[in-house]
Amino acid sequence: MQSRMATLEDVAREAGVSQQTVSRVLNKPDVVSERTRDKVILAMQALHYVPNRSAQLLAGKSAPLIGLITASLTLHAPSQIAAAIKNHAGAHQLEVAIAMPEVADYVSLQARLNEFRAQNIRGAIINLPLEANIAEKLASENTDICCLFLDISPETDVSCVRFDHLDGCGACIRHLWEMGHREFGLLAGPESSVSARMRLNSWRETLHRHGVSNAVTVFGDWSAASGWHNAFKLLHQYPKISAIVVANDQMALGVLSALAQLNRSGSRAVSVTGYDDTADSLYFQPPLTTVAQDFNKLGKRAVELLMKQMTDPQIRIRELLPTRLVIRQSTWPITGQTGNEQAQLITELKTLVEKL
């Protein structure tokens, strides 16, 4: 005879709290203290608690679900990865429940996992740049849900499949170095982003190997607008820059637009590299040299590895996917710049900065 499923009342009794508190942990965890929240989560795990709405789903004939917690789908990379995950999950008769928390902190992510638990979801792909301590805490405190992470630092002790940022970033720097560039500007993503910091550290590490320590760094927010503004900032701080290395293609588009406005062509041209190889980057003006990441392959492997992990929750999965440099017309060999041209550039920059 099948044992009775645990109820909200059972969880409350196990945790030593009220049923209302258990309900808050499931629906509004940010209003509950961390200590109480942890007690309730442990009680749910111990009792294998499945809320009533989950039982209703189980009684129906809908396809089994996996979860995806992702950054905003208005950004290119997350949207492409989500599409690939849904496509490959569908090939395995799996539906995908998508959550997009406004902030990537522990409380918000735990709330999303609680929502997945309520739908009887036992596997989740997490495509957010997370600090190691947050990812490790989520994995260790939700052992009933297999969590596979896509955007974490190499030292994080969780199951993951991710791209090799060091290889892609190093390829950008080596390509520019071979073309004679020695004066670099680095346009990184937000300082709060783990993936942005990994790319920046990889650029700096490769530059250091070549004896370069004076590269100027600014930080954007992944948007084309921030690329445009930061291009002026970089050139104003360091007019000798001959190459700008950018953390994603959308910001690189803004950089190219700013350079066009400054009429930086001929001997005054600045090389630009991006990251992601978005579908549009081929049609930028000029077409963008960038690092390609196979988002379709990432989505496919994420689904396959999560299914494997759900079959054997004890295994630890760690897989690194390659990147490749796609060379187009936004990078070219360095040419000399006369003193008059440098003086003209400084004057143009001062005029534009005053207008910003």
Automatic annotation (TrEMBL):
<dbReference type="InterPro" id="IPR010982">
    <property type="entry name" value="Lambda_DNA-bd_dom_sf"/>
</dbReference>
<dbReference type="InterPro" id="IPR028082">
    <property type="entry name" value="Peripla_BP_I"/>
</dbReference>
<dbReference type="InterPro" id="IPR046335">
    <property type="entry name" value="LacI/GalR-like_sensor"/>
</dbReference>
<dbReference type="GO" id="GO:0003677">
    <property type="term" value="F:DNA binding"/>
</dbReference>
<keyword id="KW-0805">Transcription regulation</keyword>
<keyword id="KW-0804">Transcription</keyword>
<feature type="domain" description="HTH lacI-type">
    <location>
        <begin position="6"/>
        <end position="60"/>
    </location>
</feature>
<protein>
    <submittedName>
        <fullName>LacI family DNA-binding transcriptional regulator</fullName>
    </submittedName>
</protein>
<dbReference type="Pfam" id="PF13377">
    <property type="entry name" value="Peripla_BP_3"/>
</dbReference>
<keyword id="KW-0238">DNA-binding</keyword>
<dbReference type="Pfam" id="PF00356">
    <property type="entry name" value="LacI"/>
</dbReference>
<dbReference type="InterPro" id="IPR000843">
    <property type="entry name" value="HTH_LacI"/>
</dbReference>
